[in-house]
Predict the structure.
Amino acid sequence: MSSLARMTRWFGADAEWERVPADPRRAYRHDLILAGCLMTLGVLATELARSAGMFLGTSQGSDLPGWAPHVLAAVTTLPLAWRRRFPIASMLVVYALFLGTGLSMNAVTQVAPLQVASFMALYSGVAWARDRRAMLIGVGVVLVTMFGWIAVQLSDATVRDEFLEFIGRDQPGLLSPWVALTLHQLLMNIVYFGGAILLGQSGWHGARRREQIAVQSATIERQAEELRDHAILEERMRIARELHDVVAHHVSVIGVQAAAARRVLTRDPDKATEALAVIEKSSREGVEQMRGLVGTLRQGDGSEGTTPADSASTANLAGIALLAGDDTDGLTCAYRLVEEPVGATESVPGPVGATLYRTTQEALNNVRKHSTARGASVTLRVDRRGDRRMPHGWAEVEVLDDGRPRPGTSGSGLGLLGIRERAAAHDGEVDAGPRATTGYRVRVRLPLPEGALR
């Protein structure tokens, strides 16, 4: 990148960002106050300089009335009232008036308030210009004009003769007085104008960085809110799935037992009583679990309710064995645990165990509702050896049955959808569909996180 390209980039010539005051009305009011203060100080300093005889000994401006220096000082500082509203125009007008004052009565430009005003005009033009290319052109015009004026002054033989006559013809230092004065004026003006430009551009960069940080902070806050909303939505979906599983399981048991009780109600009252007892037990368990889920929702507003641990104390790997052992509805399940190494189930996180539990519950519920099977098998496998897909091991549950689809009992598909959503939340795999021989198969494999056996 060339030096010119680096310079234009540093000045933000191609930047789309525009600096504007955070509170424009307040900023413009402050600019008006600043201009008024500098005008007052300029008039006062001009009078003090005139009274101290600083305007004597020069013929420049001698034909002007006595109040002219005061007017020149006031008018030169006036455009600063628009230094942030119209920064480039304000800068150019200040320096045009400064040059006019210098050509009319150069001694007036030496008073401190006018020096401060010209410095402030250049600083404001660089710091607040919205069109950066126009700013570079304006600054270039100012620098060429002011250094050209200084060069004209220093090349004026009359000025040189008056200076040498004032200090004498001796050479007290290494350089001649006129050369030393020329270099001193050049150095001071480079520092003066360069300092105003550097400070102005630093202010522009600082404001840009602050706005970028503010935008990034707002973006982060908005993303955090979106993440919170997403987490709330996911929690609602999880609770909806939990309610679906709880209701579907217990209603299925109730339906099967109610049908059985109806068939044997007159022929075998004892079996009917047993079936009604199962219905009573299942309905109580369903109500208790639903109450626990509602209690989970209530905890956000401080209401009393059952904690999630209380509501789903069996929703873990150990609960899978209980699901398989529940044959009160006439479905006989065989349960098998395979772990490598021994004790690997102890390292399975709670959320993974809960997902496998709900998968087993939903799969067995589907067998009861939609299949003619009277037997099923539940296999829980935990393997810590890992593979390429799941390097830290995996845990899976597989539910098989040997029945055929029951006519007129096609489901909504929400059960399998819930199984897939749960597995996707853990980046797991789902294999669900009819077996090659007969029956149905549901297998869910979830990756395990890195960690030693507990």
